[in-house]
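Friendly challenge for the regulars: who can give me the structure tokens for this chain first? No prize, just bragging rights.
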Amino acid sequence: MKTLEIGGAPIAYEDQGEGDAVVLVHGFAASVKENWERSGWISMLVRARRRVVALDLRGHGQSAKFYEPEAYSFDVFASDVVTLVEHLQLKKPDLIGFSLGARVVLQCLLSRPEKFLLGVLCGVGELLLDPKSDRDPEGFAKAMEASSADAISDDMARRFRLFAEGQGQDLRALAAVSRGLNAHPRLWTAADLSAIKHETLVVAGAGDDLAGAPEPLAKAFPNAKGLRVPGCGHMDCLIQPMFKGAVMDFLAGMPA
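First reply, four minutes later:
Bragging rights claimed.
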């Protein structure tokens, strides 16, 4: 991977292929390697004659690690994406984000709309506007700090801990990421999303209990379509052929 230093933080990224650019933003506790390389997205997009740029968010993968929650926010993540786009002189790339990455994509489209063309939000849905209130905001951070995954009672938090461990992620940094995002929450409203004029796809697995249904979220945008893909949930959607096909059809301008 290549590295760009942004405000003293080395940010790792991949830059492959030629053609119209697309920028990929991974999910929490993931990385370019996990979300986009192993699942075949980068190779798929390169074969489709796209230039593919994908970055490890700070706190993840090969990018800079900080252990203070103040180092992480949606504004910081989005600024890293925009700075990389400007550094590489990409002309209005498409943006694809998964889960946490989809939220970063939203922040990019809101803060610097002139920089991007299409938006694809994977693994998000109606719960973005109406998040569950019964989940412990410290749950993911505590899971990363637990002595072992066996000590975690929350099933979703345990799955993320095991997922992070399986990649060799820095658990202490991920705990700080979780706390930082909770300390600087970005609560999107339908009014916020109505300002995003980009053509947008909201796509989630039919069994994705972290996202909820994508169609109600898509209705908040002036120019978006929502699509529910059968046979997949949250953690496995990126490897599903139907999910990939839905995104590729959207990028190619094919009707849903």
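The domain at 2-135+170-251 is CATH 3.40.50.1820 (Rossmann fold). The first strand starts at residue 2 and ends at 6. Your move, everyone else.
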